[in-house]
Amino acid sequence: MRIDLHTHSSVSDGTDTPTRLVMKALTAGLDVIALTDHDTLDGIQEAVEAGRRMGIRVIPGVELSTRQDGHTVHLLGYGCDPFNQELAEEMARIRVGRTERIPGMIARLGDLGIDITFDDVMAQAVGSPSVGRPHVADALVAAGVCQARDEAFAKYLGPKGPAYVKRYLCPLGRGIDLIHSAGGVAIIGHPWARGGDEVLTAPVLSEMVSKHGLDGIEVAHQEHSLHDQELLSEMGKRLGLLRTGGSDYHGKGKVNNDLGCQTTRETALREILRRIRTRGGANF
Ligand code: AMP
Ligand code: ZN
Ligand code: FE
Ligand code: FE
Questions:
Q1: Which residue, judged by its Cα, is nearest atom 10 of ligand 1?
Q2: How far apart (Å, rounded) are the C-alpha atoms in residues 253 and 135?
């Protein structure tokens, strides 16, 4: 059984609609995928329905934007009840922060002599309530300033880039609590990517387990070296954490992240599904 628990659609910053994503998962020989769009559950229903028709199991997921010690942490939530008010409100707050930072990024680009408008960015985010830097990148590509998203991140939008602007992030511990209160399972996505190894050390993860009941960590990810995957796997085992893997597929928006390039073991998926059932999470 081939299981990919980390994918994005055009309901956040991926380039395939949820239906097309499921179709591509079928072509890629996957049996199970989780749709984990950033800070929204809006694509879940379409993906689950497409999955039913095409014979792919779709696990409802989300990738929540959180922070720990000044660092961005992407928290994957599986099986969250979309009608849970607390979680819905926090995601709405995060999405407002996403949109509110766009004018600041545009102003910084303007200082560099690059003229794109708020509407140019929003035109790239049609169908997505969750506007992100990839949409700004797409606007730069559409304006002929950059060739692809990658180049826009490397030159302007990365955390040290000249057009980078911070946004609101939910504290990590609170994110875990919110996912649990919505009946879901909380797993830290790519914990050691993008400098996360400095922040998400064994003591911090251990505290997240003891204080918040963190369920797991994503070990198999394109942005972890094989060596780090070994270390994370050992550490996760010692802390009693579930260990998962996923492609972080974004369609054409990200190279080297083909569907199914990283996968989760069936035993881990079974335990995730068992926990969702026990906690009364999303029924699917
Ligand atoms: P934001 O949500 O606005 O903070 O933007 C972060 C998103 O940008 C994440 O989903 C990443 O997958 C994506 N991203 C980061 N670096 C790159 C890159 N070099 N090329 C394409 N997408 C990227
Ligand atoms: Zn993304
Ligand atoms: Fe992420
Ligand atoms: Fe992701």
A1: 13
A2: 10
